[in-house]
Amino acid sequence: MSRYILPASVFGTVFGCAVLLKNHLTGGTCPSKAKIPGKTVVITGANAGIGKETARELARRGGRIIMGCRDMEKCETAAREIRGSTLNPHVYARHIDLASIKSIRSFAEKINQEEERVDILINNAAVMRCPPGKTEDGFDMQFGVNYLGHFLLTNLLLDKLKDSAPSRVINLSSLAHIIGEIDFDDLNWDRKKFNTKKAYCQSKLAIILFTRELARRLEGTGVTVYALHPGVVATELGRHTGMHQSQFSSTVLSPIFYLLIKSPELGAQPSVYLAVAEELASVSGRYYDVMKEKEPAPQALDQEVAVRLWDISASLVGLETTVSVPSPSPETVTQVLPEQTRTHPSEPAAAMTTV
């Protein structure tokens, strides 16, 4: 029996070190233990992957969870599973197709009518590196789903978010934004040759520009906004990348993948952190790489581009907007005053929506 002790000890040590190293490399778990009883959370793309695990964790912390999904069968199944595993009965499945303006408006209308408050909006749903395709309204699929759909949804829920302040908006972006470019001459790839990688990167850059401009417009309202790169996560999102479709990647690179690629449970931790961490309540418009604040790529800091993108986006999705004048300061990150120091919420710097 004793001859098995040493090998077992070595295996246990190696395995333990691997787990610790993986946690270190992937960011680990959310350090905040904050609970959110009485708070309503809206999460898009919540039937699988990061969204589902974010919904589960926030349900575990006592939130009222609205899971917005395109596939209602999968969404209902996921909601039942989360209710069972967390013993939180307030987890609900709702239909939203981010490739359809009509569907987004219908979803937002129901939320505004049926929910007393929206404390946390997590714009999580995405498509990645998919083949050429258009949304129901003629937008490039990645630009439309990843960015424009969430731009519209957020604007439609803004009054509810402001009424529920202090509240938060979390926009999932990607490290891929660093090679993104906003092509105002052909945002939807109608004329140039389609490049699925560039289309994805453009959509993720647009999300950060949107986050910063939204934070500027919401200064003083008590609604804070964050952009997030959650890390590399093993979900269905990467099914078009071909990463695991070769024998080499699935065997030789497996140990590296294990250390660097997160499970959905770990992948959800940054979203949970931005949703609940008390120390983030006074800042807005910032970009987080996993759970560390970082400065995004230079093109994500261009406020003139952010303002232009906002106004074009509003026009594309049928929202009225005014021409926005950038604030005198080149810095778009805002500092939100604590709730007790404000006598009343101020209006955004420009008109947000007239639906």
TrEMBL record:
Keyword set includes Membrane: no
InterPro entries reported for this sequence: NAD(P)-bd_dom_sf (IPR036291), Sc_DH/Rdtase_CS (IPR020904), SDR_fam (IPR002347)
A GO MF label: oxidoreductase activity
Name used for this protein in its record: Retinol dehydrogenase 13
One family name in Pfam for this protein: adh_short
The UniProt record lists the keyword Protein biosynthesis: no
Region listing for Disordered, in residue ranges: 323-355
Organism field: Pangasianodon hypophthalmus
Key words, A-Z: Oxidoreductase
Superkingdom per UniProt: Eukaryota
Similarity comment: Belongs to the short-chain dehydrogenases/reductases (SDR) family.
